[in-house]
Amino acid sequence: MYKMKGFNVPPIQAVLVCPGAGPGGYRGRGDGENMSNLFPYQIQEAVRQQAIPWNIQQVQAPSFWGKTKGRGAVVAIIDTGLDVTHPEFAGRIISPRNFTTDGYNTSIVDVTDREGHGTHVSGIIAGRTTGVAPEARIMPIKVFGPGDGFAFQDAFRHVIGHNKTAPEQDRVVAVNCSWGGPYDPIVHFLIRQLVESGVVVVVSAGNAGDGKADTAEIFSWPGFLWEPITVGATNQDGQPAGYSSSYDGIDIGAPGTQIYSAWPGGGYKLLSGTSMSAPHVTGAVALIYAAYRMREGRYPTSEEAEAILFRHVRKVDIDDAFVGQGILDLTNQIKTFTMDVPPVIEGRRTLTPARYVAELLGAKVNWYAGERRVEIIGSGEKLDMWIGSKQARITRGISL
To answer: Which CATH number fits domain 2-328: 3.40.47.10, 3.40.50.200, 3.30.70.360, 3.40.50.1820?
Structure first.
């Protein structure tokens, strides 16, 4: 049985071509033709905007920029390529790679974007004026176009190989996958390898939705996989986009409709689709990795990064089949409080009433006088302390 988010299906049931449009695709291993495609998306003309785009403001990215704008964090974008001359990305492109033979230039570093999709996605992640993480670096990997049939597998192997030899500051921290297709067990294995090595993989949910939470469009690969973070799309009003696929396995929601971002030739366009929602989360991951490294002197593990990411989620009254745990919200919430009992320093210890620290961190404190016990509940754990005792007990897995 192949484990999917929330349920199990035999592997053969997962092999279904998702509705797709866009450039080419690829011929996979085995019999028959496995075509992986960009999900259908809409393109609209756009005039140059001077203000921060609405979607960047809606996910509250500017509130995080006081810590970092993602400086130095490297994000791999497996897509149609990139306009490397676009001013949105000047000086922040690392190790481009072309795994296609598109007929114009077969150079392995020529990632010319003839479709625009990859440039637009990259702009949402790390565009200078259009991105969630405007100082992150981009590793563009071109896979859409004619080739030998193994472009997607080669793309993931490229990231794995790069990370094995690169110094930590140049290591890829996240991979964006705004596309879908039939199940590929080798790519799945490579995704699992990346996640286990500390890389967050972000994928789009798919655009086969009908606006109904109870009609699951589950066969959306790689969206249904357990390992990556799967992102559904919302409109500017914060409601689910009608085209966004819904199923048990969506992890988070982000803006996806009429998103302003870069376009080949130095221009800009508005695109709609879950291809546009996923890069918001990828950009957020870049911010988290950069901030964590500034504080701790190292990059977080993927588990640590995802734990932080999901603390930046705004709970909404929307079925989780559309947006999982909620909507991406990078608000930097600063809490202040006044203590009626000041801290006391005794030797090398600082003594402060537990409830002050606990409540500041969002935990709930209960005092049971008859049992002379203090209960602190938060972050999925419960801590019990008994007055006069040197013992404490932590219970994990508490439902909050």
So the answer is: 3.40.50.200
